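Interim report, section 4.2 (structural modelling).
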Amino acid sequence: MTITDQSSGESTDWAIELYNVTKTYGTKYTAVTAVDDVFLHVERGEIVVIMGPSGSGKTTLIQLIGALLTPTSGDIIVNGRHLEGLSKADLSKLRRSEIGFIFQTPNLLAGLTSSQNVELVLNLAGIKGRAAKERALHLLEQVGLKERTSHLPSQMSGGEQQRVAIARALANDPQIILADEPTANLDSKTGHHVVELLKRTAKNHGKTVIIATHDMRIRDLADRVLWLEDGKISVRWSDGYMIDPVCLMLVTKSTILRAEHNGKNYYFCSRGCLEKFKENPESYASRGTWNGDREGSVVDA
Amino acid sequence: MFEMVDVALRNLAHAKSKVIVSVGGVVLSVFLILTMVGLNQAFSTMMDDMITGAGSDLWVTSKGSSGSFHSPSLLPMSIQDNLTQVDGVREAVPLIRTPLSTKIHDEKVLLYINGYDIETGLGGPWSVIAGKSEVNDGEIIIDKALAQKQNLEVGGNLTFSGKDFQIVGISDKTNLMIAYMVFITFDDAKALILEGVTNYFLVTIETGYTLQQVVDNIETALPDVSASTSDETAKAYKDEILGGFVPIFYLLSAIGLLVGIQVIGVLLYSLTMDKAKEYGILKAVGATNLQVYRVVLEQAIIVSLLGFAAGAAVIPPLISVLQVFVPEFIVSITPDMIFWVSILGILTGVVASILPARKIAAIDPALVFKEV
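Predicted structure of the assembly:
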């Protein structure tokens, strides 16, 4: 498979630069290469969606860009700073001030209110007291949680928690937002709201955003969609993958969760989606953003 | 204002049961520490009182003896005249102090007989809390713990070694834990040991002489005796009696401290493991190891201070209650002990947080990407 997206340009124009980055877990016989010789440039203000099936290396790639993992080889430059050689404290500072994270689960601190969860990140950056409080409230208002600032995570829905996580990611006004499967645990409607919010926020604030997902709904958000498979980036989706018509997630064609309807094959990520499809196949069969026959369909990146 | 310390407090608030159990464990640890230190203090004070409370300047014992339980002194009465003639000696009176095992109300009791000279009062009771503060023949002043334990009171009678005594006073600070001190006249006491001997001579000195001068004069005039000041005698008592116990006190105190560290350490370790993902989140969003460690350290210090404060507040009254049921239980707790125990509390927290801190340092911030 080719290593792609070899965009050219001056390094100062790029928010993120990856040069031949490889990440291998384990050694010798247990070695697994999660990210394989990736070359990637992301412009400032660009929204990049990285898609691919589970286990393709999306999360590892996000962790590498977010200075949470050290590559086995290659070079990563974030906002013009080579991550290699930075001390742990410098990496912490980089994550604190230049990168905002949104995780698959909101990962809020259970004992803190939504406002305090946002304030905490500001506190870490040295912004304390009233200034932190006011900024946290402002951000929560922006994500539509003005009335929920004193609520604990346990008192909020999954979508609300994820919105708090978005506010937290923006707290220190980072240039880069890294999101890993931000809609994976949300229902369709909530997921849609979160996607819209992420898009609006990113555009309004001019952030560079990288989203790892296998949620088709996020595709529309992107300036550029990359396909990651076996740790390598490709411009085209593999023929081996399909879209679950119920949840719109990417699934492998080798899955045994399959149904036939009007002479076409449909593939599912879970038995729950399969059952839903069987209940009302007509309503699901027409869903999707792709062209042509579903089986073996290929969508341009 | 919301600060990192709030994270520590809120983490603790989310684990109330664990915190309560841990604070309870620390209170037990403090109880052990304070009891041991307080016991040592009480014994030490009692030894001082036993000697300095006698009212003499010097104590004369048989040569090579300190006169303590462990090293009894026996002197012939015949040297009293020789002593009084020593240059610088104003008076020299005998004092019998000897343990006596007897039965009171069918219970075996060890008395520490204190037979003193009633003319001078030297060696008499130093802290009488009820009744008279001096005795005549046939009368006795008994220790408060003995009175409580055996339901004895002023006006009652006490019989031992075939002799009846009327209780005329109750004395405090004379509970030796293993024996109760009682005060009778020297004449009554000498019938309990060999005729013509005593354990000590208590000496007061003439003005114009130093203690050391008179000690030297006595030991020169009477080579078979030892003379020492009250302070020296008290020290010798403490060295001999407490010397055997102090290492045990310290050992038990150290065990108490280790129990406290262990209890807090287990709590913190458990909390750290429970909150591992949250610490991972903190690290992922840019907290340094030091900032996260601060949260754990604050938790440790909060729990240890809560435990030590609760212990310091609860234990002194608890000991007072215990002393009602177990009068022999003598523990002396002073404000400076409470202060040092509080300092110890903070140190305990710091030590207990070392292992969780190491654990935190090892927490991978990438953990937050794993769905739980």
